[in-house]
Amino acid sequence: MVALSADRLSVRRARRVVVDDVSFAAEGGALIGIVGPNGAGKSTLVQALLGLVPATGAILLDGVPLAERSRREIAQTVAYLPQGQSLHWPLSVERLVALGRLPHLAPLSRISRDDHAAIARAMVAADVTTLAARVATEISGGERARVLLARALAVEAPALIVDEPLASLDPAHQIAVMDILRAQAARGVLVIAVLHDLGLAARYCDRILVLDAGRLVADGAPSAVLTPARLRETYGVRAWFGSIEGVPVVVPLTRDSAQGD
C-alpha cells in the first residue's frame, strides 16, 4: 500500500504563512478528511503534498522524498482532483475522462485495451456513462463535477487526493461520491478529501485532520475530533451531535456568541 507523510510542512504566500508546521503520516486503505474554516490552508496543504507549490519541510511518498520523484511518477501514484476546475475545450465526456490515463502513456502512444477498461470502470463508478457522448463544456456543474472525478478515478492510482469533491452536487450525488471514496479506500487506496460537510466527514471518514489558520489543530477519529469544543474553537459554531441507526450526525446550528463578531 502507498504511504504519504509530511514532516513540519510549511508554505508561505505573499509573506503570509498559509500552512504552518504540519506533520502527519497516512497509508493506503483509509479515507482521510481535511476540514477547517475558509482560508485555513486546506487546498494549499494538498497542493504542497503533490509538490505543486513551494514548501519547506519534508514530504515522503513511499519513503522517497517527493523532490526525488519525477512528475510522471507522482501523477501515476497520486491522482488529484482540484477544486473549481473550468473546462475550455469542447471534448466529449469520454475523451475528457480518458485524459486520466495520460500519466501511464508514453509519448505519441495510443490508448490500449487496458486503458479503455480503466476509463469504463471510472465512468461507471462516477455514474457518468450516459454522458459519454455529450460535450463536456455543455453539461451542468454537477455533471461536470462527477466527470472530473471520473477522470481522477481513471488514473487508478494507489492514492487519490480530492479537493471539495462535493461542490455543485445535489444530496444524492454527494452521498454517491462519498460512497465512491469509501469504496476506493476499501480497495486499499489512500484517499484524502478536503471537505466542508462535517456530517458527511463524520459519517464516512476513518480519520479527520482539522486545520485552523494553517496549523493542524486536531488529528484523529471523527468522534474524537468533531467535538463541541473543537467546533466552537475552530469554526465559532454550536452544533448538534447524535446518531441515526448507528450513523453519526453533526449539524451546525448557530454561531457561538462567545466567539464574537
Automatic annotation (TrEMBL):
Tagged with keyword Translocase: yes
A Pfam family: ABC_tran
Residue intervals of the ABC transporter domain: 4-238
UniProt entry keywords in alphabetical sequence: ATP-binding, Nucleotide-binding, Translocase, Transport
A GO molecular function held by the record: ATP binding
Family to which this protein belongs: Belongs to the ABC transporter superfamily.
Record function comment: Part of the ABC transporter complex HmuTUV involved in hemin import. Responsible for energy coupling to the transport system.
UniProt-recorded name of the protein: Iron complex transport system ATP-binding protein
